[in-house]
């Protein structure tokens, strides 16, 4: 620990909470700038909603959500409309304070009028979400899954998922919500931090029983019941990749602001905790993402009244030690150096006719990074370590998901026009330049109309009180403006095609401009 900072540069900086390394120029940091902000309940819901607008079917793994207090009228109106169209619909909603954790301040309601607007909730924004009433039960209990995901790099996008996770159980048998049982947290909320206080919580030495178990033990149970476990895993992988695709555009804005391109700085990686609920039909639903998942491998035990001791928790140890060990193996700076040396050697081999390249080298070229790491493990310093528990899923499955990365491309346009590095918001001049350079203004859309669009959208986003530190247009506001322009220009297409077409239009004009400038430079 270096509470007062460390003067000599490190290979890896491992923080407990968040990124604050604007003053280091090399190495790798275990947190991304802006990640804590991005996974807050409101920001995550917004980012996922943008993707739901574009790809409703692909993003139906996140419950319908509304942001309070600003969307309360919309919440009331939409619920009324849905109830009118289907009178048999008897929904339950869950209210979760923004920035809360461990079940803090969460409650269930049957009707929008039950939202508690008194006291602190008014000053505390929240998300209200459709409650998943029919979760999969094991031993009659509701449970959720904590999966560990390594975001190894943002650009290019590299994602790894741990092969095993934790299942955290409720401690009261589950019943579908009724007015009578809505308040029973041990029945409805799976948080470990809550259920540990229930008399029914079972600490287990065995990973297959108790109130916290390995996810693999659940999969074994499901598989023996005849469930399609392979499909379940593929749905989970897809949920993780899509969620990260929803987060990357804004993360890139934070990244360029803290670590400007072209200046020396560290690179980042981060272990995220995904909380997932399985529905009765085995569909995985995303509950939330934790930027700072607990890595504790002990739990407190009350030896005698009031006397507590930390004792090892075999379930936590089994899952978490492997996650940290393999994260370090994947970001190992020595390996990076070895890889660079291998790369140089391979490049020199490539200059020779192909038949001179040995089979082993060809294999190395073909293998994905995960396999490559395993290759290394077999050969070198890592000999004797278990095989990697972290499996690469992106870019491995990139082909299936790249079509979803539209907002990423909108963010690239936004970042291009941010101008002065170190900011996260676009000024009016930047917005005008974007319109001009992309040739979006015409007789139907004057520059005066451009200014009005900028002012309208920016004012509304800034009045939501997300970030008052900087003035100007945030990425989400820019995305809204971009969608507006796309709808105007390509009227009859579905939204994702409108947006896709406008992106291509802008990218085409910017490439032409760059070409022209390059030509001028040469001239
Ligand atoms: P926190 O950060 O406070 O843990 P979560 O979003 O994880 O907040 O919610 C706490 C718990 O509430 C979850 O672990 C889950 O058991 C339950 N829960 C949350 N959202 C839903 C939902 N939409 N449907 C059913 N259960 C939910």
Give a quick set of tags describing it.
single chain, 523 residues, alpha+beta, D-amino Acid Aminotransferase, Chain A, domain 1, Recoverin, domain 1, eight-stranded antiparallel sheet, four-stranded antiparallel sheet, 18 helices, binds adenosine-5'-diphosphate
Q: Topology, pairings included?
A:
Layout: E1 12-13, E2 28-29, H1 35-38, H2 41-54, E3 65-68, H3 72-85, E4 93-97, E5 107-109, H4 120-123, E6 126-130, E7 137-138, E8 141-153, E9 158-162, E10 166-169, H5 185-188, H6 192-195, E11 212-214, H7 215-224, H8 229-258, E12 267-268, E13 270-278, E14 284-290, E15 298-304, E16 307-312, H9 314-331, H10 333-350, H11 359-366, H12 369-379, E17 390-394, H13 398-401, H14 406-417, H15 428-437, H16 447-463, H17 475-489, H18 495-522
Bound molecules: adenosine-5'-diphosphate (ADP).
